[in-house]
Amino acid sequence: ESLRMQNITGLFTDKVKKDCIKLINSKRENTNVNDLRKMKETFLEENYIFLSKILGEPKMKFDYEYKDKESKYVKYKNITPIEFRDKFLSINLNDFVSLGNIPMYNKEYYKLYREKYLGNVYQNSYVEFLNLPINEIKQLAIKQLKDNMPVYIRINLRKFRDKKSGVLDTRIFNYKNTFGFDFLTKEEALNTHDIYPHHCMSICGVNLLEHNKPQRWKLEDSYGTLEKVDGYYIMNDNYFDEFILQAIINKKYLSKKQRELLKQDVIEFEIKDPF
């Protein structure tokens, strides 16, 4: 499934880039703003048609059925997306904040960052994050998990992963003794664009040792139940250190000092930045 989506994404990316080049060239030829906007609207219509041919058009109404906690069968017929949101989205997204662990040469801890030109789906909001040490993010994640709320994360998932067993652990393959070289630190990997947050998952559990020290974490993947263990990974805490880059946490779990940091001026960084 992921391979097919990579092909679709690659093809769609080529089309959008070609549209951008057409817009840039038209602007260089002094095309007026109104005509440029019409061009953009045409491209957006073409993009909608492209995606609809592959994925189908979004449903205006649909049926939704499930079993509740008492195993009672529940069904809603002809519900609209907005009705679904109003009924089932019980959380306020504005209560949550993005926390990053980006220990690189041009990012300081306890600063608020925003990537230029990168928008979020929710109400045209920007993608911002407060840069914190990894252990602070872990403790906030533990607080949220203890309240039965999963933690949405952005992660680099392409190293030290065994899909068959569903294990994420930096010790799972003995590369160092076999080949005799040291691997990049997290800071070095970020500085050289070796790792970046290419995938999202949810942390839904944690095993704790004494003094609230995490040993391993349970992650639910978004690619279904194939491979892994019924769609879940077991992640050693060392993997959290090296490859988790962002986490979404409810503001109520932040300390007073951390909440105050959210009020500072945002530092914007360029889209060409390694992170």
TrEMBL record:
Q: Which UniProt keywords apply?
A: Hydrolase, Protease, Thiol protease
Q: Name one GO biological process term.
A: proteolysis
* GO molecular-function terms, A-Z: cysteine-type aminopeptidase activity
Database matches in SUPFAM superfamilies: Cysteine proteinases
Q: One GO CC term of this entry?
A: cytoplasm
Gene3D superfamilies per UniProt: Cysteine proteinases
What Pfam families does the entry give?
Peptidase_C1_2 (PF03051)
Query: Any idea of its EC number?
Result: 3.4.22.-
Mind telling me which PANTHER family this protein's record contains?
BLEOMYCIN HYDROLASE
**Name assigned to this protein:** Bleomycin hydrolase
